[in-house]
Amino acid sequence: IRPPLGLMYIAAYLEREGFRVTILDAEKELLDNENILCKISDISPEYIGITSTTPEFPNVKELFGGIKRMRPGIVTVAGGPHFSAVPESPNGAYDAIDYVVAGEGEKAFLKIITTAPKEKIVEVVNEEPLDDLPLPARHLVNYERYQFPMPGKGLIRMATIITSRGCPFSCFFCFNRNTKVRYRSIKKCVDEIALSHEKYNIGFFMFLDDTLTI
Protein backbone atom coordinates (compact mmCIF):
# COMPACT_ATOMS: atom_id res chain seq x y z
CA ILE A 1 0.00 0.00 0.00
CA ARG A 2 1.49 3.30 -1.08
CA PRO A 3 0.72 6.95 -0.30
CA PRO A 4 -2.21 8.33 -2.37
CA LEU A 5 -0.18 10.60 -4.67
CA GLY A 6 -3.14 11.71 -6.79
CA LEU A 7 -5.09 12.84 -3.74
CA MET A 8 -2.02 14.63 -2.37
CA TYR A 9 -1.63 16.58 -5.61
CA ILE A 10 -5.30 17.61 -5.57
CA ALA A 11 -5.05 18.53 -1.88
CA ALA A 12 -1.98 20.71 -2.48
CA TYR A 13 -3.70 22.44 -5.40
CA LEU A 14 -6.78 23.21 -3.32
CA GLU A 15 -4.72 24.34 -0.32
CA ARG A 16 -2.92 26.80 -2.59
CA GLU A 17 -6.33 28.24 -3.46
CA GLY A 18 -7.17 28.68 0.22
CA PHE A 19 -9.30 25.59 0.92
CA ARG A 20 -8.90 23.33 3.96
CA VAL A 21 -8.35 19.69 3.03
CA THR A 22 -8.20 16.37 4.89
CA ILE A 23 -6.95 13.09 3.40
CA LEU A 24 -8.32 9.84 4.77
CA ASP A 25 -6.47 6.74 3.53
CA ALA A 26 -9.02 4.14 4.59
CA GLU A 27 -7.11 1.31 2.92
CA LYS A 28 -3.97 1.92 4.95
CA GLU A 29 -5.90 2.46 8.17
CA LEU A 30 -7.94 -0.73 7.58
CA LEU A 31 -11.26 1.11 7.88
CA ASP A 32 -14.50 -0.44 6.73
CA ASN A 33 -17.32 1.73 5.37
CA GLU A 34 -18.95 2.10 8.78
CA ASN A 35 -15.71 3.46 10.26
CA ILE A 36 -15.25 5.76 7.27
CA LEU A 37 -18.75 7.18 7.70
CA CYS A 38 -18.02 7.86 11.38
CA LYS A 39 -14.88 9.79 10.47
CA ILE A 40 -16.75 11.72 7.77
CA SER A 41 -19.37 12.64 10.36
CA ASP A 42 -16.63 13.96 12.67
CA ILE A 43 -14.90 15.96 9.91
CA SER A 44 -18.19 17.27 8.47
CA PRO A 45 -16.86 18.24 5.02
CA GLU A 46 -18.70 20.14 2.31
CA TYR A 47 -17.14 18.07 -0.48
CA ILE A 48 -15.89 14.50 -0.59
CA GLY A 49 -13.70 13.07 -3.33
CA ILE A 50 -13.06 9.33 -3.59
CA THR A 51 -10.61 7.71 -5.98
CA SER A 52 -11.29 4.20 -7.23
CA THR A 53 -10.02 1.45 -9.47
CA THR A 54 -12.56 -0.90 -11.07
CA PRO A 55 -12.12 -3.79 -8.57
CA GLU A 56 -12.73 -1.29 -5.75
CA PHE A 57 -15.84 0.23 -7.34
CA PRO A 58 -18.55 -1.99 -5.75
CA ASN A 59 -17.36 -0.99 -2.29
CA VAL A 60 -16.96 2.66 -3.32
CA LYS A 61 -20.50 2.67 -4.74
CA GLU A 62 -21.80 1.42 -1.38
CA LEU A 63 -19.76 4.08 0.44
CA PHE A 64 -21.15 6.89 -1.71
CA GLY A 65 -24.66 5.64 -0.96
CA GLY A 66 -23.93 5.65 2.76
CA ILE A 67 -22.59 9.20 2.58
CA LYS A 68 -25.71 10.48 0.84
CA ARG A 69 -27.99 8.72 3.32
CA MET A 70 -26.05 10.16 6.24
CA ARG A 71 -25.48 13.69 4.89
CA PRO A 72 -27.47 14.39 1.68
CA GLY A 73 -26.00 17.89 1.44
CA ILE A 74 -22.39 16.73 0.99
CA VAL A 75 -21.22 17.13 -2.61
CA THR A 76 -19.79 13.78 -3.73
CA VAL A 77 -17.03 13.60 -6.33
CA ALA A 78 -15.62 10.43 -7.90
CA GLY A 79 -12.31 10.11 -9.71
CA GLY A 80 -9.44 7.78 -10.42
CA PRO A 81 -8.81 5.06 -13.01
CA HIS A 82 -12.30 3.52 -12.96
CA PHE A 83 -14.10 6.79 -13.55
CA SER A 84 -11.64 7.95 -16.19
CA ALA A 85 -12.30 4.70 -18.06
CA VAL A 86 -16.08 4.64 -17.46
CA PRO A 87 -17.29 8.21 -16.86
CA GLU A 88 -20.85 7.44 -17.99
CA SER A 89 -23.04 5.89 -15.31
CA PRO A 90 -23.87 2.22 -16.12
CA ASN A 91 -27.46 1.43 -15.11
CA GLY A 92 -27.70 4.13 -12.46
CA ALA A 93 -24.58 2.97 -10.63
CA TYR A 94 -23.50 6.59 -10.08
CA ASP A 95 -26.78 7.86 -8.62
CA ALA A 96 -25.18 8.79 -5.28
CA ILE A 97 -22.34 10.63 -7.07
CA ASP A 98 -22.79 14.31 -7.87
CA TYR A 99 -19.74 14.69 -10.12
CA VAL A 100 -17.43 12.33 -12.01
CA VAL A 101 -13.91 13.58 -12.77
CA ALA A 102 -12.44 12.08 -15.93
CA GLY A 103 -8.69 12.57 -16.22
CA GLU A 104 -6.53 14.83 -14.07
CA GLY A 105 -8.18 16.01 -10.89
CA GLU A 106 -6.60 19.27 -9.76
CA LYS A 107 -8.36 21.82 -11.97
CA ALA A 108 -11.49 19.67 -12.28
CA PHE A 109 -11.99 19.52 -8.51
CA LEU A 110 -11.36 23.26 -8.19
CA LYS A 111 -13.93 23.90 -10.94
CA ILE A 112 -16.51 21.83 -9.07
CA ILE A 113 -15.95 23.76 -5.85
CA THR A 114 -15.90 27.22 -7.40
CA THR A 115 -18.47 26.98 -10.20
CA ALA A 116 -20.82 24.04 -9.38
CA PRO A 117 -21.04 22.99 -13.05
CA LYS A 118 -24.34 21.72 -14.40
CA GLU A 119 -22.76 18.74 -16.15
CA LYS A 120 -22.12 15.61 -14.08
CA ILE A 121 -18.93 14.58 -15.93
CA VAL A 122 -16.17 17.12 -15.43
CA GLU A 123 -13.08 16.86 -17.60
CA VAL A 124 -10.59 19.71 -17.71
CA VAL A 125 -7.81 19.39 -20.27
CA ASN A 126 -4.75 20.46 -18.31
CA GLU A 127 -1.97 22.03 -20.36
CA GLU A 128 -0.33 23.54 -17.29
CA PRO A 129 3.41 22.74 -17.04
CA LEU A 130 3.90 20.14 -14.33
CA ASP A 131 6.56 22.32 -12.68
CA ASP A 132 3.83 24.88 -11.96
CA LEU A 133 1.88 22.42 -9.79
CA PRO A 134 2.53 22.61 -6.04
CA LEU A 135 4.37 19.67 -4.52
CA PRO A 136 2.07 16.91 -3.20
CA ALA A 137 0.62 17.64 0.26
CA ARG A 138 2.73 15.07 2.07
CA HIS A 139 1.97 16.75 5.39
CA LEU A 140 -1.59 15.39 5.19
CA VAL A 141 -0.56 11.74 5.49
CA ASN A 142 1.36 9.84 8.17
CA TYR A 143 4.51 8.46 6.58
CA GLU A 144 5.13 6.13 9.49
CA ARG A 145 2.32 4.04 7.99
CA TYR A 146 4.00 3.63 4.59
CA GLN A 147 6.97 1.31 4.63
CA PHE A 148 8.74 -0.88 2.10
CA PRO A 149 10.84 -4.00 2.79
CA MET A 150 14.44 -3.45 1.65
CA PRO A 151 16.85 -6.42 1.65
CA GLY A 152 19.39 -5.97 4.42
CA LYS A 153 17.68 -2.82 5.74
CA GLY A 154 14.29 -4.01 6.93
CA LEU A 155 11.23 -1.77 6.62
CA ILE A 156 11.97 1.78 5.53
CA ARG A 157 9.65 4.70 4.85
CA MET A 158 8.56 4.97 1.25
CA ALA A 159 6.98 7.65 -0.93
CA THR A 160 5.51 7.88 -4.40
CA ILE A 161 6.67 10.38 -7.02
CA ILE A 162 6.11 11.20 -10.68
CA THR A 163 8.47 12.77 -13.22
CA SER A 164 5.89 12.95 -16.04
CA ARG A 165 2.22 12.56 -16.92
CA GLY A 166 0.79 10.97 -20.02
CA CYS A 167 1.93 8.25 -22.37
CA PRO A 168 2.60 8.33 -26.14
CA PHE A 169 0.77 5.03 -26.69
CA SER A 170 -2.95 4.19 -26.85
CA CYS A 171 -3.15 0.65 -25.52
CA PHE A 172 -6.77 -0.54 -25.66
CA PHE A 173 -6.63 -2.03 -22.15
CA CYS A 174 -5.48 1.18 -20.44
CA PHE A 175 -7.80 3.72 -18.79
CA ASN A 176 -5.43 6.55 -19.73
CA ARG A 177 -6.01 8.01 -23.20
CA ASN A 178 -3.69 10.97 -22.67
CA THR A 179 -1.21 10.59 -25.51
CA LYS A 180 0.52 13.89 -24.82
CA VAL A 181 3.44 13.52 -22.42
CA ARG A 182 4.35 16.37 -20.06
CA TYR A 183 7.58 16.28 -18.11
CA ARG A 184 8.79 17.77 -14.87
CA SER A 185 12.26 19.28 -14.79
CA ILE A 186 15.06 17.15 -13.40
CA LYS A 187 15.80 19.80 -10.77
CA LYS A 188 12.20 19.79 -9.49
CA CYS A 189 12.23 16.00 -9.16
CA VAL A 190 15.59 15.86 -7.40
CA ASP A 191 14.61 18.71 -5.07
CA GLU A 192 11.38 16.89 -4.17
CA ILE A 193 13.30 13.70 -3.36
CA ALA A 194 15.81 15.62 -1.22
CA LEU A 195 13.09 17.56 0.61
CA SER A 196 11.04 14.41 1.27
CA HIS A 197 14.10 12.62 2.62
CA GLU A 198 15.07 15.52 4.88
CA LYS A 199 11.58 16.39 6.13
CA TYR A 200 9.95 12.95 6.40
CA ASN A 201 12.98 10.61 6.59
CA ILE A 202 11.88 8.79 3.43
CA GLY A 203 14.44 6.31 2.13
CA PHE A 204 12.60 4.62 -0.75
CA PHE A 205 10.80 6.22 -3.70
CA MET A 206 8.39 4.49 -6.07
CA PHE A 207 8.02 6.18 -9.47
CA LEU A 208 4.45 6.11 -10.78
CA ASP A 209 4.94 7.51 -14.29
CA ASP A 210 2.75 5.82 -16.90
CA THR A 211 5.92 4.91 -18.82
CA LEU A 212 8.94 5.98 -16.81
CA THR A 213 11.55 4.99 -19.39
CA ILE A 214 10.37 7.44 -22.06
Question: What is the topology?
Answer:
Blueprint (H helix, E strand, L loop, with lengths): L4 H12 L16 H11 L3 E5 L5 H14 L4 E5 L1 H5 L13 E3 L4 H10 L5 E2 L24 E4 L3 E8 L2 E2 L16 E2 L2 H15 L3 E4 L7
Parallel strand pairs: 1-2, 2-3, 3-4, 6-9
Antiparallel strand pairs: 5-6, 7-8
Helix pairs in contact: 1-5, 2-3
How is this structure best described in words?
By secondary structure, this protein is an alpha/beta fold. Helix content is 31%, strand content 16%. The strands form 3 sheets. Strands 1-2-3-4 form a 4-stranded parallel beta sheet. A 3-stranded mixed beta sheet has the order 5-6-9, with helices on one face. A two-stranded antiparallel sheet has the order 7-8. Helix 1 packs across helix 5 and helix 2 (33-43) packs across helix 3 (57-70). The longest helix is centred in the last third of the chain and has 15 residues, at 186-200. The chain is globular and about 50 Å long. The two termini are 25 Å apart.
Structural class: alpha/beta
Strand content: 15-25%
What does the average pLDDT come to?
A: 94
Number of helices: 6
Runs with pLDDT <50, length 5+?
none
Main sheet characteristics: 4 strands, parallel
Order of helical and strand elements: HHEHEHEHEEEEEHE
> Can you give the helix content as a percent range?
25-40%
| Intertermini distance | 25 Å
User: How many strands?
Assistant: 9
Query: Which sequence of strands runs across the widest sheet?
Result: 1-2-3-4
